[in-house]
Amino acid sequence: MRVLLSVLIAGLLGIAAQTAIAADASALAQKGGCLACHSADKKILGPSYKDVAAKYKGQKDAEEMLIKKVKAGGSGVWGPMPMPPNAGKLSDDEFKTVVDWILSL
Description:
The protein is 59% helix and 0% strand. By secondary structure, it is mostly helical.
C-alpha cells in the first residue's frame, strides 16, 4: 500500500511540475508575441504548436534549429506566410523554455 501511495504522490508531483512548466512557457510565449500567430492546438496564422511538435518529433537537432528559426524568422516551411524575426523579445533561456515546451506537446 505504501509503494502504491508513493507512486501516486510522485505521479501527482510530476503532473504539477509539468503544469507549472507549461504555464511558464505559455506566459513566455505571450510575452514574446508568439500567441498572436500560434496556438497550442489550432492553426492561426502559423501552425499549431502540436503540429510543430509532430513535425520535428525524434529529430535530434530540432531544439537548436527551432530556437534559431524563432529568433531569426523564416518562411516556406509551413506555407507562404513568413514568420517575422523575434530576436530581442526573449532571452536565450526563455526561447529554450518555449521551444522545449512546444516540442513536449
